Inverse folding.
């Protein structure tokens, strides 16, 4: 096909010479990359219609609206939509987060026009049929009931509620049972009218495609979408780390394992200290069998099946979270050991060897992360969401190489020193717990 | 598809399968051993999985932790899985680090230490892994259904083992299990990715060629027929949701009916992806059971599935009930749909659809080197690689009469196990 890169010159990492980026007049940004080896296509993207716009008494509205898009349109009912998708072996799904609604789909190359037409139809002309909205509500409430019994999910949910108290990140985008009950079909229609707009939408298409042809299709199916309003921005309050420890326990009786999440505020994705933070976090709780924390908790003391540190760096704020699954009687010991590791991390710089290993790991894993169409599509969305530049993944090794031991130490002192931590466990009550 | 595979056997019995794929500068190296819970005896349930854990706990050459660091430095990943029929270890690495995978795996094929202190620390880790599983209602239900589905065959046991056996198994027993099953004649190396096959074969000979052969594992089992009657069981535990699981005996992977059942499953409960890595699935919203259960407001979710196994295992259907629905009604609705498959031939279009879905899922899975290498070895554990390479052709040969016959043979209502999970915390039944 014309416009395809020749296999011999396809670069391992996407860059300005093999990413095609277009802006449509209505505000949609289209990003593409051809993978000539692939007989299939991944299509993913987002638009700024996330849970940040949810009224407090109707938390979960953005989420339900996103899920309900594929439940029927003005032209096709639920069965017709999924008959078209499933007959082609294709998929299309939506999910809600705080800032955006995201979507993802995949199909064989020959079915891409069908998938684009379907995306356009569900985004622009959803019908939100009453019976489907009710069925979706029951399905979602069942999902929330399962969540309420899931120790890992509940520990994570309560951790966010406490750490991001008063901030949109502290509210679950999938809502609570009582807020889901408050949502009516009209709310979905209003939410769609008010917040679904091509302005700010980003669409990434990766696979065995011919970009010029795909751009035409995208213009055809989505170019004429116009809306009256552009959603207003949302002000996010400033966050401070907890002054002292805040301890919560979610009691879920009858469970054999307790899940633990502890941590504090971390950098935003666009903060300059994001890079020293990820180099350090890799050493603290990721690399090998989950870094120093995994080494102590799992390998040395055999206390947990998993223990890791995660940096969740988003647009408006970030969090630093250590999570572990432990037997209830080992909980306090695990908390103490994790705290000791974190304290140690803010006192002594990491070793030269650790630093070199962490950098080699972060740089070396790019080809693996970007081998699949979905990996590349995710990278393209990342570039656009955070304004990283088309050459970001090719510059990345240089950025990481520049991080020094001192920067890692300073960064950790800035975030982890002198403040308390939010410590949340979920599982059976255990009498030794303070 | 099979002609681009280099297949060889070393004098010590080690089977090698190599497939060059030059789409990304990566390799994925797998070692497969014919050992898993199917090979275990009473009192030692879970020993194969525990041995797998100990394989990460060091050799004289690579003390604990050093291989993790070596892999991490490359940016690659490694892991292992224990199944009923097999245990496997893989490394996916930048292509220029293939030698690291060969060195690590050939070393721990024979030199693992099983240090007593490491054994004890791992006992707690595995008990903690089991505790995590026991938190899950569907683990509790599947466990009970699996047990009730077999009288003798070790497929009745969960791979992770029982709490009692995990408390009692000793270091020397673990080491003896390791020595018995970990050797070239009981192993297969599969590598896919960006390398030269002939050159890589020479490297494999260098690393693995000197390891003594050992004896191939004997298949200790005889396939078990379906349960002789319909069995009902109930399990309860913390939760708020009622689950129903129905399990029928399934054909072994080499049985011609496996392909008829794959088409049947696709129509009844939606297509199941056999890819272990990457690809993602296809929804099942137009499947017969989704229409009969979810659209009729009896359930909120349904899934079906079958595994490719050495001996006949289980075809199971798992249903998440609505809080207000009656399990008997749900079961009756499922029985109506199964009876329809038994009484009326499906249309050729429905079969075509199932084939296209399988073709799409194959295409999605092929993007990923790890998944390609997985298949290179996995298919050999119950058949041979041509089982995988000929999969779509075999599906295309399935006729409406085949599906009808498979429904009659494999889904009889009087030879199955029906399990229900009742939540202790709530849910109305």
């Amino acid at each position: 096909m014309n416009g395809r890169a020749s296999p011999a010159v396809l670069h391992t990492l996407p860059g300005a010479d093999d990413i095609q980026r277009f802006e449509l007049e209505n505000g949609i940004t289209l990003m593409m990359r051809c993978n000539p080896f692939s007989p299939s296509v991944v299509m993913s993207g987002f638009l700024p219609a996330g849970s940040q716009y949810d009224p407090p008494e109707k938390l979960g509205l953005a989420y339900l609206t996103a899920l309900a898009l594929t439940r029927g349109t003005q032209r096709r009912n639920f069965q017709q939509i999924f008959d078209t998708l499933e007959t082609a072996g294709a998929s299309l799904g939506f999910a809600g987060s705080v800032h955006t609604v995201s979507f993802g789909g995949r199909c064989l190359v020959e079915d891409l026009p069908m998938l684009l037409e379907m995306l356009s139809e569900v985004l622009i002309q959803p019908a939100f049929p009453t019976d489907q909205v009710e069925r979706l509500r029951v399905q979602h409430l069942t999902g929330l009931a399962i969540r309420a019994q899931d120790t890992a999910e509940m520990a994570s949910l309560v951790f966010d509620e406490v750490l991001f108290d008063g901030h949109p990140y502290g509210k679950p985008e999938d809502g609570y049972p009582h807020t889901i009950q408050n949502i009516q079909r009209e709310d979905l229609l209003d939410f769609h009218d008010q917040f679904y707009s091509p302005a700010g939408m980003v669409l990434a298409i990766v696979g065995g495609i011919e970009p010029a042809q795909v751009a035409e299709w995208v213009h055809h199916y989505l170019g004429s979408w116009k809306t009256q309003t552009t959603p207003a921005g949302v002000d996010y309050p400033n966050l401070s780390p907890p002054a002292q420890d805040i301890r919560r326990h979610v009691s879920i009786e009858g469970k054999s394992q307790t899940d633990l999440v502890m941590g504090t505020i971390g950098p935003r994705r666009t903060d300059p200290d994001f890079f020293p933070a990820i180099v350090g976090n890799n050493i603290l709780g990721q690399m090998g069998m989950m870094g120093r924390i995994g080494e102590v908790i799992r390998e040395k003391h055999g206390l947990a099946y998993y223990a890791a540190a995660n940096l969740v760096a988003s647009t408006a704020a970030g969090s630093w979270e250590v999570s572990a699954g432990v037997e209830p009687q080992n909980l306090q010991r695990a908390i103490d050991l994790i705290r000791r590791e974190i304290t140690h991390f803010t006192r002594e710089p990491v070793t030269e060897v650790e630093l070199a290993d962490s950098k080699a790991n972060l740089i070396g894993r790019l080809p693996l992360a970007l081998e699949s169409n979905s990996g590349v599509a995710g990278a393209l969305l990342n570039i656009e969401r955070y304004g990283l530049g088309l050459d970001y993944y090719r510059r990345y090794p240089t950025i990481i190489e520049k991080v020094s031991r001192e920067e890692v130490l300073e960064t950790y002192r800035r975030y982890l020193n002198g403040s308390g931590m939010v410590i949340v466990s979920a599982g059976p009550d255990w009498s030794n717990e303070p | 598809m099979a002609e681009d595979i280099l297949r060889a056997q070393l004098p010590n019995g080690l089977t090698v399968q190599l497939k060059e794929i030059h789409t990304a500068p990566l390799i994925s190296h797998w070692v497969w051993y014919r050992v898993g819970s199917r090979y275990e005896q009473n009192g030692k349930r879970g020993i194969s999985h525990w041995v797998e854990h100990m394989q990460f706990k060091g050799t004289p050459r690579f003390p604990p932790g050093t291989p993790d660091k070596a892999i991490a430095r490359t940016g690659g990943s490694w892991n292992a899985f224990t199944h009923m029929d097999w245990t496997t270890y893989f490394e996916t690495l930048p292509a220029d680090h293939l030698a690291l995978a060969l060195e690590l795996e050939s070393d721990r094929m024979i030199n693992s230490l099983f240090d007593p202190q490491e054994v004890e620390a791992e006992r707690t880790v595995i008990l903690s892994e089991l505790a995590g599983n026991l938190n899950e209602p569907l683990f509790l239900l599947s466990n009970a259904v699996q047990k009730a589905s077999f009288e003798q065959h070790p497929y009745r046991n969960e791979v992770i083992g029982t709490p009692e056996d995990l408390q009692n198994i000793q270091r020397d027993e673990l080491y003896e299990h390791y020595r018995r099953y970990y050797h070239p004649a009981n192993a297969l190396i599969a590598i896919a990715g960006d390398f030269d096959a002939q050159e890589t074969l020479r490297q494999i000979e260098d690393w693995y060629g000197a390891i003594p052969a050992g004896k191939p594992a004997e298949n200790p089992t005889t396939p078990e027929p379906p349960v002789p009657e319909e069995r009902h069981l109930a399990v309860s535990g913390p939760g708020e949701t009622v689950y129903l699981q129905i399990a029928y005996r399934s054909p072994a992977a080499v049985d011609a009916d496996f392909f008829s059942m794959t088409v049947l499953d696709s129509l009844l409960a939606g297509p199941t992806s056999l890819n272990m890595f990457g690809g993602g699935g296809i929804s099942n919203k137009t499947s017969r059971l989704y229409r009969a259960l979810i659209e009729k407001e009896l359930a909120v979710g349904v899934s079906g599935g079958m595994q490719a196994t050495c001996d006949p295992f289980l075809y199971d259907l798992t249903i998440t009930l609505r809080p207000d629905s009656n399990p008997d009604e749900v079961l009756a609705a499922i029985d109506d749909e199964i009876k329809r498959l038994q009484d009326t031939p499906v249309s050729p279009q429905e079969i075509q659809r199932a084939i296209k879905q399988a073709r799409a899922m194959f295409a999605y899975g092929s993007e990923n080197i790890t998944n390609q290498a997985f298949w290179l070895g996995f298919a050999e554990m119950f058949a041979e690689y041509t089982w995988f390479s000929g999969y779509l052709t075999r599906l295309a040969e399935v006729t409406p009469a085949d599906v009808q016959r498979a429904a009659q043979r494999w889904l009889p209502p009087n030879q199955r196990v029906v399990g229900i999970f009742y939540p202790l915390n709530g849910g109305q039944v």
Observations:
- Chain A has two domains: 12-222, 246-427.
- Chain A touches chain B through 67 residues (CB under 8 Å).
